[in-house]
Model the fold of this input.
Amino acid sequence: MSLFPRRRQELLALLVVPCALAAPLLAGCPGEATTAASMKPRQPLTEIAKKWLKRATESYRAGDLADADDSVKKGLEVAKKENLDERELRLVAGRIDLAKLDFRQASIDLVDVPGSEAAGLRARAYWYDGDLPHTTEELTKALEDPEYKDPWAKPVRDLAGSQGAGRKPFTIADGGARLLEVKMPRDLYPALMVPCEIDGQSVLALIDTGIPEVVLDKTTHTNPAWVSIKFGSGERTFEVRDVPTMVDDLSGYTQQNQVPIRAILGVNFLRRMHLTFDRRADQLILRRDEPPAPPVFSRADILYVRGGGMTVRSTARKEFELTTSMWVDSGAVWPIAYVDETWKKLGVDVAKMPVSGDVKYERLIDFRVAALDLGPAVGVSGAPKLEEKLKQIDIDVAGGVGMGFLSAMRVTVAEQGRALWFETDEGTSGVLNPQNLPAAKPTSSPEPATTSTATSAPKPTTSAAPTSAPKPTTSAAPTSAPKPLAPASAAPKGK
Done:
């Protein structure tokens, strides 16, 4: 028996492919190219300016955007007053702006900063703000640097260039519903699968907050393209036009779910849809406008990695208490997942953790997201490829929350994508802290760490017969947590 929801064996590999698809978001700290001296020669930073730079950088990495923003502004004040070189301060300011989705301010803070790193950050600000000409200009500059490595850059430049002429990204078509409810397939629980049409072709798409862009399967598209995505049918539809898409091999999703997955809907699309999902009720809601606040909910600020990947602040307590940033990955099936080093900081001996299938687990005494106290919850160690993914992120992220966590609540992406609203009920604790886990069987030594990075879809593993799905709920609380499914004997490996 496993602590994961049903169909876990088929869905476990979903973590591996998003790692490859997330690479354009996470990869690369580009080198500094030799550029024209667009900034006047200035003096090196003084000690006080360096201290503000250090504090801003450390606060940004810790996910404390308020302190990071205040510190970098004070550092810039010192630099301007004393005619100091502002480049390092402005790079940090640009990253903070992207984390807050303040794209206009990012382009201001990074203006005239030389080098491919600055050009790449400016390109992201322009891209996410829908400014295609400036995106093309900045990415062309960055790609001239032989040390600039960012797999996101070239396909985006192709999309923003001649293909993007006259387009207004993510335009919601007139005449459709202002609000549309879509039912997600019950037999694919807990994954966020949604039926839709892409350029008139009916497909099944996965909602994945772990990757930045919309990705199409290479069997249907060979190059990055602009498409139309429509949800619903008949008189009630919700259509989004001029959607930029990448292309990748999604066969791993198809093999693991036994249904053809032709598209992945990433963060750049999702945060614009005023989205609500309730996986226990199989309900997905799309809106034209911001949703009204629920009667009772808890709010969590989202920090975006380079403008395209969700993280939230959380606090866990076991032997010790630890506050960290957590990656929000709806493409993964685990609940709360930490790397071994984080478990050690919580006072847990990883070698003595009980085992459920192919992962280790431990019950946390308490788990909180922002101000939402969820009480006891089960966390795991050994989630496939998690550690490799987190090492590529430029903030300190100790772990992630997947669908095993998100399915316990009703979740809304609100405030233009800057916050998550969580609604809980009496069944939430049963999902987060299931009582029917197997008896503890400590391992004799820690499992060896995986060092390879997934570059393509995972190889399929043998599927286990699914157990019965939990009954969906709307407002009523469920009486028990979803029944777990025995996991595969080993995590799938990248091809």
The two ends are 28 Å apart (CA to CA). The chain is about 25% helix and 25% strand. Residues 28-150 form a domain with the Serine Threonine Protein Phosphatase 5, Tetratricopeptide repeat fold (CATH 1.25.40.10).
